[in-house]
Design goal:
By secondary structure, this protein is α/β, with parallel strands linked by helices. The protein has four helices and five strands; from the N terminus they run ββαβαβαβα. A five-stranded parallel beta sheet has the order 1-5-4-2-3. Strand 4, helix 3 and strand 5 form a beta-alpha-beta unit. The longest helix is centred in the middle third of the chain and has 12 residues. The chain is globular. The two termini are 25 Å apart.
Length: 109
């Protein structure tokens, strides 16, 4: 499974958050696309519309398990996707900004 470290992500990299709604509302990376893993297959078209044509899809969840599943599925669909190692827990620990549903400072649930 292709993975990337949080420290290797640059501003503007396309980020897909596959955590559930309550987790997203508590805190997420600003600018990420949110499609919960439980809705992913049904909402797959939203990803293909939003993802950069020739870019990489960085998939993130809380710790890396769910995002690894989605990243593997995307790779099987021919999409250049990688799992963000350690997920939002590492994102927050690295001091990356986390915002809640209102755009204020959030936390990883």
């Amino acid at each position: 499974m292709p993975t990337v470290e949080v420290s290797d992500l640059a501003d503007g990299d396309f980020l897909l958050d596959v955590r559930e709604d309550d987790e997203w509302q508590a805190g997420h990376a600003e600018g990420a696309l949110h499609i919960p893993i439980s809705d992913f297959v049904a909402r797959y078209g939203e990803l293909t519309e939003a993802a950069p044509q020739d870019g990489k899809v960085h998939v993130i969840c809380r710790s890396g398990g769910r995002s690894a599943q989605v990243a593997m599925y995307l790779v099987q669909q021919g999409i250049d996707a990688v799992n963000v190692d350690g997920g939002m827990q590492v994102w927050a620990a690295a001091g990356r900004p986390v915002v809640n549903a209102e755009g204020k400072s959030g936390f990883v649930l």
